[in-house]
């Protein structure tokens, strides 16, 4: 079978394409929420990481973000200049600094989980609760098969 460029692919609206569209909508909503707080995605990730890993070392943050300590240094500098994080020197080792989210940094991310839950609710709103449960069960089976 020959497929012309103007014709949609026979699989262009298959289940995985639909999941991808849903995922993109969810990601876009998250990015909009982050940008609304004046953060880049990387800054938000680092700040969120620090709310869960208070006192992390720069090296640990770099590993968590899968980037270099030098790159993270720039991100931390911006966050620190905004008063969202602070760096503290370890006692007895002036070269070793731990990084903490400040109360302002924590407050900036407050409500994120609720906002993302509202996005999920909106995305799933065309489905009844029974259909949502079925979708969850089916996707769970697919996810389990990946392991």
From TrEMBL:
Gene3D superfamilies: Winged helix-like DNA-binding domain superfamily/Winged helix DNA-binding domain. Keywords: DNA-binding. InterPro entries: HTH_MarR-typ (IPR000835), MarR/SlyA-like (IPR039422), WH-like_DNA-bd_sf (IPR036388), WH_DNA-bd_sf (IPR036390). Pfam families: MarR_2 (PF12802). PROSITE patterns: HTH_MARR_2. The keyword DNA-binding applies. PANTHER family: TRANSCRIPTIONAL REGULATOR, TRANSCRIPTIONAL REGULATOR, MARR FAMILY. This is DNA-binding MarR family transcriptional regulator.
């Amino acid at each position: 079978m020959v497929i012309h460029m103007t014709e949609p692919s026979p699989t262009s609206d298959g289940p995985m394409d639909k999941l991808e569209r849903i995922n993109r909508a969810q990601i876009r909503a998250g990015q909009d929420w982050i940008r609304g707080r004046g953060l880049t995605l990387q800054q938000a990730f680092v700040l969120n990481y620090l709310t869960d890993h208070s006192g992390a070392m720069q090296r640990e943050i770099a590993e968590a973000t899968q980037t270099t300590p030098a790159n993270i240094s720039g991100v931390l500098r911006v966050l620190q200049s905004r008063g969202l994080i602070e760096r503290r020197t370890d006692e007895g080792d002036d070269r070793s600094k731990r990084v903490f989210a400040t109360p302002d940094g924590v407050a900036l991310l407050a409500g994120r989980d609720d906002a993302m839950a509202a996005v999920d609710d909106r995305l799933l709103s065309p489905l009844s609760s029974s259909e949502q449960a079925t979708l969850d069960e089916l996707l769970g089976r697919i996810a389990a098969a990946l392991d």
